[in-house]
Amino acid sequence: MRRDFVIERLEVDAPAELGKALDDLARDAENGDENAKAALVAVVDAMNDPRARDSLQRLREEAEGAELVTLARLLRRPVHPSVPPGSRSPRAPDYGYGRPLTLGERKSLAKKTDRHLLEKLLGDPHPDVIRFVLRNPRLTEDDVVRFVARTPGRPELITEVARSPKWVHRPRVRLAIVLNPISPTELTTPMTALLLRHELKLVVESTTVAPEVRAACLEHLARKHPP
Predict the structure, then answer these.
(1) How buried is 157 (Cβ within 10 angstroms: 0-12 exposed, 13-18 middle, 19+ buried)?
(2) For residue 25, how far is the Cα from the chain centroid?
(3) What are the 10-residue block averages of pLDDT along the chain, 227 residues in total?
(4) Closest alpha carbon to 194 in 212, 211, 177
(5) Residue 68: Cβ within 10 Å count
(6) Global confidence as pTM
(7) H or E, element range at 168
(8) Which of 14, 40, 71, 97 is deepest in the core (most CB within 10 A)?
(9) Structural contact between residues 221 and 203, judged by C-beta atoms closer than 8 angstroms
């Protein structure tokens, strides 16, 4: 609901007014304001939603023109493109049925509560199946963290986790997304604004994260108040 509210404001509010408000919000969050940090979670959620793409571009232009430095940092686009998905679609798995299952059949299986089956389905190559698995009530946070941390992986599957409000709000899941080198940087760079000081240090110390993600974490570390 909060994400949808932010997307609506992005669509209807004037960029100048909204840009200044979001710049103030992001700065307050960097300075440790708990209410601002909570509100910024919804903003980052909205930024990861495809519906906000055009509105975010208008905000980027406003941030640059009005010299809204904190907002510009939050909206920064990656210098290097994300790792593209594989050009060939992997063969559809059969999950023990003796034949490749259709996408519809695999999505139906993702609704079942069999733990052993769920673990198998987390290896499915199709984002739609992963989206249904992420909604399954039997899935645990440990399952999702292991799934995100899996390398090699597929960027489009990690994107499904980043767009799942149920899981991306979990600090361990969010950190796992940022730390995975194949995670799309257009998703992970804004997420760095939500990381705590010790989490930022973990990302900075990683030797595999994208340079722009590490740079964003260094900037946040320089501005966040010590605990």
Answers:
(1) buried
(2) 19
(3) 85 88 90 87 87 87 89 76 50 78 92 91 92 95 94 84 91 95 90 93 94 92 68
(4) 177
(5) 23
(6) 0.78
(7) helix 165-168
(8) 71
(9) no
